[in-house]
Prior knowledge:
By secondary structure, the chain is an alpha/beta fold. Helix content is 37%, strand content 23%. The strands form five sheets. The protein has a six-stranded mixed sheet, sandwiched between helices. Strands 18-19-20-15-21-22 form a six-stranded mixed sheet, with helices on both faces. Strands 2-1-4-5 form a four-stranded antiparallel sheet, with helices on one face.
Amino acid sequence: MIEVVARIENLLGGMGHKTGTLIGNLLRYNPLSLLLLFEERNEWQRGTDLLGCHMTAVLEVSDIIKSFPGVRALKGVGLSVGVGEVVALLGENGAGKSTLMKILAGVQPPDSGEIRIDGKVVQIGSVDEGLKHGVALIHQELNLATNLSVGANIFLGREPKKGGFIDEKEVFSRSREFLDKVGLDVAPDTLVGDLAIGKQQLVEIAKALSTDARLLIMDEPTSSLSQRETERLFEVVKDLRNNGVSIVYISHRLVEVIELADRVVVLRDGENAGELSRDEISHDRMVSLMVGRDLSQFYAHEPLEAGAKVLSVSGLRTPVHPAYEINFDLRAGEIVGLAGLVGAGRTELLESLFGIAPAVAGSISLDEKETTITNPREAISAGVALVPEDRKQQGLIIDMAVADNLSLASLGRDQRRGFLNFGAEKEISDEMVNRMRIKTPSDRQIVRFLSGGNQQKVVIGKWLAMKPKVLLLDEPTRGIDIGAKQEIYALMEELAAQGVAILFVSSEMEEVLGMADRVLVMHEGQLSGELSREEMSEESIMHLATGRITDAA
């Protein structure tokens, strides 16, 4: 041991790492921690040769097969994760990512295949067994009891006891230890419901670490986080990696993958599609593996000549930001982006236009005629449709069938003497399933069991059946795979060509730059400016989004 440390110190030269620290790391984290020191000096391979070892695999999965009625979800999938390694698992919705992760976490068993932890074959038949093996799954939709304290959530179901009762002091002190590990400075007796979503995400990670988890599976962890919360999460992920915790990171945001991943594994149609090492990771290579084709023309937007004025907003004041007047127009065939930072008031503006939160002042005109919109029914009658940001809570009845959801907006129009028109419902369903290319066994499939991209297609299809004049899209591609995104972009193009005016909110700068004919930028409730397609750039949009008001606004 002393000889190894001495040889390492000679290689590290003047870096100042003390012998005691090196020995402590060696004992605590296995050789990986020492190799990390070499990585700082770009001497990873030299360190590996010196120690005579390679990164130990905490998890090895081979030939995993899993079938559901009518669907073979996994077809002999393999995966390995090294100690202290961040592996990004990518693939379109329906590729098998979630199924594989549920198998690893013990939520459901595989039909066949082998799982090894530290080189030993294991059976993970339940979530408890998964935790015993050090595997913890952090779901996209957080699994916390918001009416309980942070500490109570961290030890929920595993509470330390004293004299037959929960030892609150022990819960408090031990919770503080795990909160410190994720850098969350809140008191353990704070109610989880009082925390912002980003801090709740860190509570989930602290909870997983409290189970002695050595492998964290993080499913779309930033989908509901602000930029600042996302940056904090990145810091936590990097700290965990440096302390020997392994992470499987699932995300549709490829920029995140490029920043965090040591390696990328891609699934396609339930099979391994390929793998990328750290120096091979790029946006185009990841996309190509995911969809099996070149998407160099991913944003194929061709601006059309704008038609007649369809929507005019004058002096509009929203309930959330009543101090500011909003003025803008939309024309037929236009695709207009609505950009801004989280909290800028973009969603609130769309909700006012759709009558969910009626404007407190100002006017809305459609086809040059002033229109009263005080509720969604009036908006729908006027030809305005809204695809909301949260499709599951606001856009779908998740436990109803595809056909039922697709016909929801049309029920009043198509009813016969007060009764449902099942013939019209079937026509709408057949048309929209085909037009939207919704992947479903039948239109009687419950929407809950569709992938995120297909759920989003159902939400949009519901409104297309109404033939709207104005389509409002709030984060239309959030949480869906790259192939489904391209299909939605193509649909936006198609609708614009038919004369529909589209106003869409997006937090993805590439999406705004790629799809918008022009962009309206909001800052703290007001329009801070407008940019033509020629004027648009990431820098010019962020300039306005951070508060510089232009004369045009």
